Amino acid sequence: MNINSAIIHNYARLRKSLFFLPIILLVLLILFLYFNHALNVYGYTVIQKSSFFAINAYLGRYPNLESNFTQFGDCLISLSLLSVFLRYGPKLWEALISASLISAFFSILLKVLFAVPRPAAVFNHTSFLITGKMLLGNNSLPSGHSITIFTTLTVIMYAFMPQRLSYKIMWFLGLTFIGLMLALSRVALGAHYLLDVVCGCIIGYLSGLFGIFFSREFKTWNWVNNKRYYPIFILLFLVFSIVLINRIINDNLLIFYFTFICLISALYKIITVYAKK
């Protein structure tokens, strides 16, 4: 069984009951805020002051590491890192496209709906660690980077889910832990509150599931596997490469070099395949 067939098989085995856990977590989060009188902007920010300062102070001591971690929440980085699967696992890309569009919709809608000010707009910005650009807008909830991280990890998680139960548990817990560590970089950099990240992770997980089920039920993105359309991705990956080169020049983060290598490798492969079609 090749990679794409394995992904199709794994996605086909998923049940809609998987939506229960994230929905229950969202309900519990709302109840927690309700009983703590935090279903308003003021209460929401005040209740998280101690957790924000504690996490920011601890993780903020590693600014370079956290700056690399947070890049996984950038669609440019996540799509580039998975570019190789366009050739070897196009079904993953079908789910990823759907999931990314759904997550972008949730992120934009909820940020506008809640309009929660960023930490730097609420607390004295000299009282905590800020790495990178200071963010002052009213778009803190939910964390868009956390949504992207968990959207991507969910699509990967179920694409390569092991068969044995013990391995499934370790795989699920391992990727969840990695996702949380990456997402908490948003608190470490002074950009988000803890619950922004938690909410973003849950929404990202839901977005990933929606993307998988949508791609399974509908054939909207089946053309991804058609070599005739490779020029679209060749152009897209070339644009990504130019942007990455610019980021390497300006920010010089290790993750950009690794991402660039992945992208160029995928670009070479699909150009070769297209040329031979």
TrEMBL record:
Gene3D superfamilies: Phosphatidic acid phosphatase type 2/haloperoxidase. Residues 95-212 form the Phosphatidic acid phosphatase type 2/haloperoxidase domain. The keyword Oxidoreductase does not apply. The chain crosses the membrane at residues 18-35, 95-116, 143-160, 169-187, 193-214, 229-249, 255-275. Keywords: Membrane, Transmembrane, Transmembrane helix. This is Phosphatase PAP2 family protein. It comes from Sphingobacterium paramultivorum.
